[in-house]
């Protein structure tokens, strides 16, 4: 009576390692992008909730705090800031391109806003 061997062949192991490697590559490239986006969103929300600031103050505070939070994809000049009395509306729209390998890359379009919407 013959017994069949079970298990993975060498080719299937190589394929699985290649797939796992691609997943790790993507995760290593995508996770920092979304971490930066969450920092941008948190900072914009914080600045919008702080009342009594002028547009110049909001942009200055964004510049200062973004350098501490290591935000490099968007600058204070790219923000849309609308002041309604003591309330502020801030919107950040930006694109982040991440190269993967050779001429293949990922493009992320982000749009976040905080505060009272202008009327």
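Sequence proposed for the structure above (119 residues):
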């Amino acid at each position: 009576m013959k017994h069949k061997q079970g298990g993975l062949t060498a080719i299937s192991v190589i394929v699985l390692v290649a797939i796992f490697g691609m997943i790790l590559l993507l995760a290593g490239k995508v996770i920092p992008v979304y971490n930066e986006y969450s920092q941008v969103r948190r900072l914009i929300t914080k600045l919008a909730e702080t009342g009594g600031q002028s547009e110049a103050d909001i942009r200055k505070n964004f510049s200062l705090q973004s350098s501490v939070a290591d935000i490099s994809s968007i600058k204070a000049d790219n923000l849309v800031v609308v002041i309604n009395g003591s309330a502020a509306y801030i919107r950040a729209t930006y694109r982040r391109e991440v190269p993967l390998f050779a001429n293949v890359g990922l493009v992320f379009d982000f749009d976040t806003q905080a505060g009272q919407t202008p009327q």
